[in-house]
Amino acid sequence: MLDDPEEQTRTVIGCKRLLVAIFYPEAYEALTALERDPTEANKVRFERELLKIKEMRTKGNRKRGVVELSD
User: Fold this and answer.
1) According to the model, what pLDDT value does residue 48 have?
2) Domain annotation covers residue 17
3) pTM for this one?
4) Torsions phi, psi of 4, nearest 5?
5) In sequence order, what DSSP letters do the residues of 5-67 get, joined into one string?
6) Range of the domain at 28
7) Residue 32 lies in a domain
8) Do residues 45 and 34 touch, judged by C-beta distance below 8 A?
9) pLDDT per residue as tens, the chain (71 positions)
10) How far is residue 6's CA from residue 2's CA, in Å, rounded to a whole number?
């Protein structure tokens, strides 16, 4: 079933998209808009949603006492 690496990749991508759709619906809407119409405005909208997710994760990590390593 998942012996094919391409099928594994498609499955993983599909699962990740599903998780984004469930937990971050605004980001999913921005992603699908960008895929349908790859304009600069849609790119900016999607990047803004990604920043929101990153900020939420950073705040959550601080609350739990997780130390993040910078790039």
Assistant:
1) 96
2) no
3) 0.70
4) -80, 120
5) HHHHHHHHHHHHHHHHHHH-HHHHHHHHHHHH---HHHHHHHHHHHHHHHHHHHHHHHHHTPP
6) 24-66
7) yes
8) yes
9) 568 888 889 899 899 999 999 999 999 999 999 999 999 999 999 999 999 999 988 887 777 776 555 55
10) 9
